Amino acid sequence: PDMESAVITESNENNGEEQIDSLEALIQNPSVVDQGTAVPTLLNDPSSSQLTSSTGKYQCSTCGKKYSFLSSLKNHQVAHREDRQLKCDVEGCSYSCNGPSRLKRHQAVHTEDRLFKCNVEGCGESFKTSGTLKKHQVVHREDRQFKCDFEGCDYTCKRNSDLKSHQAVHTEDRLFKCNVEGCSESFKMSGELKHHQLVHTEDRQFKCDVVGCNYACKRPGNLKEHRLVHAEDKSFKCDVEGCNYACKRPSNLKEHRLVHAEDKSFKCNVAGCNYSCKRLSNLKYHQVAHREDRQFKCNVEGCNYASKRHGDLKKHQAVHTEDRPFKCDAEGCSYAFKRRGDLIKHQAVHTEDR
Which stretches of 101-258 are assigned E, i.e. beta strand? Predict the structure, then answer.
């Protein structure tokens, strides 16, 4: 028998699915799949799974992802099946999936145990899964072995997935199209599509467990970010000589380090636009300004507001309500806001983390 096709291990899956971080939210949010919005639609869908001669990798005929091993491809394709035989046994949880490793990953959201600890001196990070720990440990490496081969581009990074994300700035192809009726959004990366598709669901299943906090969100990453507002320690410190910056979040430290950098390697490719920046996210945000369509429309009767960004629409809609659901949890503070961003800005007055 073909042992490679018969034995599908979790390690194969971890090796094959390089973008597990971008998939995590969808894996843990089955309601999106049930609505038919989680499976990406390729504009140029390959007709069959095949070993591509140019890369030596197997390609999924449904979403276009490529793998080095046939077993990894078969393990991945389970995610596209309609039947979900494995169900989470936690009371009140309706999650179901096709693979035991996916169920195991999901169940980590129901526990606070972080058994996998980073062993780098001075790093206090710990994680619920070994895969997340491995991804984190890359930040401690000095070598940036992944280099962009685009002519004139000096970009280097520590992760192959980061390189793939970067290379998207060199192409106009948007192969990943949202299949929600009425939505014309398309993206260069499958992870971007999956992140976008969550705007089409109202389910906020990730809830803060701090007593008195009513925060809930659609993505586990947002919940993890939010929880830091309840923490006091600032374990992430800038290593630039003479800089005393310290913060609660590794993402904030990464963002801060850019103030010490001079290069602006991300450049807008629209004719006549000289915009350049240090961050890929800033470039993506800027490029939306060049689009003509304003597909995000306010649904309040009599309001003609429309915007290019979903985030701008959400900010606008707050003007139609008196609700102030975002409340400051600092002792003695009664401030409340319509927008989460306004709350975050306000909370800076209660902390030295700037």
Answer: 116-117, 126-127, 146-147, 156-157, 176-177, 186-187, 206-207, 216-217, 236-237, 246-247
3-state secondary structure of 198: helix
C-alpha–C-alpha distance, residues 333 and 142, integer Å: 44
Q: How many helices (H) and strands (E) does the chain have?
A: 14, 22
Query: CA torsion, points 76, 82, 87, 93, in degrees to nearest 10?
Result: 110
Per-chain mean pLDDT for the chain: 75
- What three-state secondary structure class fits 52? strand
**Nearest one of 231, 195, 241 to 210, comparing CA atoms:** 231
Compute CA distances 174 → 162, 186, 193, whole Å.
Answer: 18, 6, 10
Q: Which residue's structure tokens are 């526990």?
A: 111
> How many degrees, rounded to 5, is the angle at CA 54 between CA 52 and CA 58?
25
Q: What are phi and psi of 80, to 5 degrees?
A: -90, -5
State whether the Cα torsion 153-158-159-165 is positive or negative: negative
Please report, rounded to a whole number, the percentage of residues in the chain having pLDDT higher than 70. 82
Burial readout 201-221 (b: 16 or more C-beta within 10 A, e: otherwise): beeebbebeeeeeebebbbbb
- Phi, psi at 63, each rounded to 5°: -120, -5
Instruction: Tell me the pTM.
Output: 0.34
The answer to whether 122 and 140 are in contact (CB under 8 A) is no
Interval 17-37 mean pLDDT: 37
Q: For residue 108, how many C-alpha atoms fall within 13 Å in the half-sphere facing its CB?
A: 21
Question: How far is the C-alpha of 185 from the C-alpha of 82, rounded, in Å?
Answer: 25
Closest CA to 129 of 121, 141, 117: 117
pLDDT band at 17 (very low <50, low <70, confident <90, very high): very low
- Cα Dmax for the chain: 69
Per the CB < 8 A criterion, the answer to whether 249 and 229 are in contact is no
Which residue in this structure is represented by tokens 């790093």? Answer: 123
**Length of the chain in terms of residues written:** 354
Residue 261: burial class (beta carbons within 10 Å; 0-12, 13-18, 19+):
exposed
